[in-house]
Amino acid sequence: MTSISKQEVLVIARVMHEAIRAFQAAHDQPTSPHWNKAPRWMKDASIAGAKFRIENPKASASDQHVQWMNEKKENGWKLGTVKDPIAKTHPLLIPYGELPELERQKDALVVGIINALTMEV
After folding, report:
1. CA-closest candidate to residue 35, choices 6, 14, 12, 51
2. How would residue 2 be classed by pLDDT, with cut points 50, 70 and 90?
3. Higher-confidence position of 68 and 3
4. In this structure, are residues 111 and 12 in contact, taking their beta carbons and an 8 Å threshold?
5. Whose CA is closest to 30, among 39, 40, 20?
6. Strand, helix or coil at 89?
7. Which DSSP symbol is given to 64?
8. What are the DSSP calls for 6-54, one per residue?
9. Is 78:40 a contact under the CB 8 Å cutoff?
10. What is the pLDDT of residues 57-98, one digit of tens each?
11. Is the separation of the CB atoms in 110 and 16 below 8 Å?
């Protein structure tokens, strides 16, 4: 794979974020804010996820979830019954195999989008 600039990573992270928003809306889940209104921590998590995928193109969706969990934990998040950015709790800080199917589909969506946007032509 050719080198990807910081700007390209940012574009990929934004596309991924917006696709997740659409997925959430399509499945009647609470939706993340539009990229332009997303808090810095949310953008940083999307950027970290995109970077991981770019650097590890063969990683599985479960590996992508582990990366997401590690990023959250490194930033002080812990398991909780609700997603709360103030308390830094999240109910999905659990092993991939324990995720509901819909959440595993979301991880697969992330993988697919980043793979599609980084394919060499």
Report:
1. 14
2. low
3. 68
4. no
5. 20
6. strand
7. H
8. HHHHHHHHHHHHHHHHHHHHHTTPPPPPPGGGS-HHHHHHHHHHHHHHH
9. no
10. 999 999 999 999 999 999 999 999 999 999 999 999 999 999
11. yes
Instruction: Report the alpha-carbon distance of residue 101 to residue 28 in Å, rounded.
Output: 15
Coil/strand/helix, residue 120: coil
For residue 81, give the DSSP letter.
S
List C-alpha distances in Å: 28 to 32, 44, 48, 109.
12, 25, 26, 17
- In whole angstroms, give the CA distance from residue 92 to residue 45: 14
pLDDT given at position 121: 39
Kind and range of the H or E element at 78? strand 78-79
How many residues in the chain?
121
User: Given a cut of 80, is residue 39 above it in pLDDT?
Assistant: yes
